[in-house]
Amino acid sequence: AIAYRDANRAGTQQPFEPGTWLFSKGSLGLIGNDTMSSIDVANGWQATICTNDLLVGCTDLGPGIHNTLPAGYDNAVSSLRITPKDATNGAPVAVATATPTSGTAPLAVQFDASASSDPDNDALTFAWDLDGDGSLDDSTSVGPTFTYTAAGPVTARVRVSDGQLTTDATVTITVAPANGTPTAVATATPTSGTAPLTVQFSGAGSSDPDGTPLTYAWDLDGDGAFDDSTGVSPTFTYLTAGTVTAALRVSDGQLTAVDSVTVTVTTGVPADPVGEIVGVGSGRCLDINPNKKDKTVVSVWTCSATPDQQWTLKSNGTIVNSLSSTCLSLRGGTITNGTVVEVAACTGAAVQQWTATPAGELKNAASARCLDVTGRRVGNGSTAVITNCVASTHQIWRLPT
Predict the structure, then answer these.
(1) CA-CA to 373 of 20 to 30 Å: which in 146, 285, 289, 323?
(2) CA distances from 186 to 13, 177, 179, 248 (A)
(3) What is the C-alpha end-to-end distance of the chain, expressed in Å?
(4) Which residues face 168 on adjacent strands?
(5) Residue 219: strand pairing partners
(6) Ramachandran region of residue 315, left (φ > 0), alpha (ψ -120 to 50) or beta?
(7) Using CA of residue 114, residue 120, residue 121, residue 125, what is the dihedral sign?
(8) Whether the Cβ atoms of residue 6 and residue 37 lie closer than 8 Å to each other
């Protein structure tokens, strides 16, 4: 039960009987002729020391060997009350809560065991296993916090003790993996061309490491606003020349990623038309002698689609024969009515400049006269000349487009 050791009797142990004992100033105090050197308190017993026999100013020594008394109790007459503890000491009730109990790593959790209790109103101590490793070595606080950085379920446990009995309580924390950033991949076909340029975009190569469905937002006109499309593979037509950075932004609902692709749009320069020049009146084509490619007279012949009947309408106003690479011109540079038309080395001079009129004529820039055939004949070999423009059928020509 409870005993004391007598310093006068070589430290022999003497028992205390239940009740109240008075002792006076000494090492631990004097009881009768004995001097206490220590007090032994066994489990199941309670030793309450008070400043006098009125049982005021008391404190519980607790189980174990006490070689000294608490301050204030060994310098005056004191009393020691010996009582057995209740043989039916109740086990404490352990209650553990956590806030939150689930979330994405890193997850900070606030634990709380303050709702735990003891039926005997004994003071409680706490020991926590917060990392789930089975050891109650993470905290002795009633309300610790812990941050989980790895994914998975963790069973946190608290052990509550009243000094004799213990009770455990657990709470499960579910930690989801940290949300991964998606990857945006934007492609375009084609990435260059002349206006108007229609481009097919695609974000189908984008992905999310967690498998979360993605949403798409496009800035196709390069104005910085992702407001042009929400489709995976939109199209866009560029009408003006310039370099545009088209961008795709993908989102998993929490994180976003952006990718871009550059589209280069140039001004469309139409190709110079090439083909036959056909007289409406004759139904025949302007032709040159294939054996004489320079300074040769131009005439009309049955259309055959051969190179000597192929002409290129250049943007500078000249008309170039495909066989000879020489230009439709006026013989000798003469600009009078009836001047013969020939081909000559291209110089870009006014006698080689021709303009299609709204009526379908070909007007020479130097002479202001129109391409015609001699005597308005329509047969093969009829020579081409210039005459005053009258918009008659022999001056009307179907040009290549």
Answers:
(1) 323
(2) 90, 27, 22, 6
(3) 123
(4) 159
(5) 247
(6) alpha
(7) negative
(8) yes
User: Do 273 and 312 meet the contact criterion of CB atoms below 8 Å apart?
Assistant: yes
Residue with tokens 């400043």: 51
Token pair in block for residue 260: 């871009």
Average pLDDT of each block of 10 consecutive residues along the chain (401 residues)?
A: 63 68 59 70 75 63 78 62 67 96 95 94 94 96 96 96 92 93 97 93 96 97 96 95 96 96 87 93 92 86 95 94 95 94 95 93 96 86 94 93 86
Q: CA 385 to CA 259: how far, in whole Å? A: 64
Q: How many helices (H) and strands (E) does the chain have?
A: 0, 37
Find, among 215, 227, 225, 217, the residue nearest to 253 by Cα: 215
For residue 240, what are the CA distances in angstroms to 206, 267, 268, 325? 29, 7, 10, 35
Q: What residue type is assigned to position 359 of the chain?
A: A
Q: 369-378 burial by CB neighbour count: b if 16+ within 10 A, else e?
A: bbbbbbeeee
Q: Which two three-digit tokens encode residue 321?
A: 């024969």
- Specify whether the CB–CB gap between 156 and 98 falls below 8 A: yes
Instruction: Sort strands 311-313 and 187-189 into parallel, antiparallel or unpaired.
Output: unpaired
Whether this model's pTM surpasses 0.70:
no
Q: Nearest 5°: CA angle at 98, between 96 and 104? A: 150
Q: How many Å apart are CA 191 and CA 262, to the nearest integer?
A: 7
